[in-house]
Amino acid sequence: MNSDNEKRNQESPEREMAEWLPTQRDNLFVSSDGGACLDPLGLTSMGEKRSSIGRWQLYAGGFLQAADRLVHGCRGMPYEDALIYPILNLYRHHLELELKYLVRYCKGGERFRDWLTKTHSLMELWNCMTQIYPRFGTWTSAESTEGCHRLLSEFDQHDRNSQSSRYPEDKHGKQTLLALETVDLQILKLGVHKISHYLSAVVEQLAEDRDWEEEVNSW
Asked: Is 102 in contact with 96 (CB distance < 8 Å)?
């Protein structure tokens, strides 16, 4: 009996190591019936090239949802503070994708495709959108538009190029996010959702303007 216990005890570390460390039999991307679908809108027929319709919104929505879940799961414990970095990055990337989609969707936005791949500043993206779509804020008050501008500018000041939330130092070796001490996650979440709602409304207005233009041109 003792020999059997000793054998199991000796095998235990080996089994644990086998579970902790990669092996040549392991894979990361495996299809399954219950797996996450990369075409959740179901717009692609079997065997066809995946449809691009709705992809920008899916990506943007996914990053927003992921950040919300992290915020919801935080209970204010000190060991959770490290989650601020992925939370900031997820929220920021959501806003960047929303703004880039707006620029691409605007009339004449296709000429900015190359520029968009190199630009990450939220304010540069906002300014581009306002220049090529001057009617962007006609659906709401000037106060709401200025509020959205101010919130985007605030985020941009702390993470201008989407690097500060991803790396502890910039390319010059200077520590990032030094201007922040603590961040109220619920207020951050609320502000990001307000910006997101504003940008979504601009998309809707832009769609209406395009539909109206097409109708007028058909007369």
From this structure: no
Residue 175 dihedral angles phi and psi, to the nearest 5°? -65, 140
pTM for the model stands at: 0.88
56 confidence band (pLDDT: 50, 70, 90): very high
Report CA torsion sign: 133, 137, 142, 148. negative
| Alpha-carbon span 192 to 61, nearest angstrom | 12
For residues 192 and 95, what is the distance between their CA atoms, to the nearest angstrom?
8
Q: Rounded to the nearest 5 degrees, what angle is found at the Cα of 64, between the Cα atoms of 59 and 66?
A: 95
DSSP-derived 3-state class of residue 12? helix
Name, in order, each residue with C-beta under 8 angstroms of 175's C-beta and a sequence gap of 6 or more: 168, 169
Q: Summarize pLDDT for 100-126 with one digit per residue, the tens.
A: 999 999 999 999 999 999 999 999 999
Give the per-residue pLDDT at 3. Answer: 58
Other C-beta atoms closer than 10 Å to the C-beta of 100 total 22
